[in-house]
Specification:
The chain is mainly alpha-helical and about 70 residues long. The protein contains 3 helices and no strands. Helix 1 runs antiparallel to helix 2.
Length: about 70
């Protein structure tokens, strides 16, 4: 199959729909779990975020690692 290279990785064109879907899901998560601005421990304390929001941030920040199986 032309979508799979000699090294077994998907071509960018084959992976593109999945990458776009991943980003769409993250965008939906941004809408459902907006960043919280409430500070824990007063005005100088850390911003409190839910576990779901922390995961969403990590999945966005480490997209390359999360999608690495496309490029093995």
């Amino acid at each position: 199959d032309a979508a799979i290279g000699a090294d077994g990785a998907l071509s960018y064109q084959a992976a593109k729909p999945y990458i776009e879907r991943y980003r769409k899901i993250l965008a939906q998560g941004e809408h459902e779990y907006p960043k919280d601005t409430a500070r824990k421990g007063g005005p100088k304390g850390p911003i409190h975020q839910t576990k779901a929001r922390n995961l969403l941030d990590r999945l966005r920040d480490y997209e390359d690692a999360a999608l690495r199986f496309f490029n093995q």
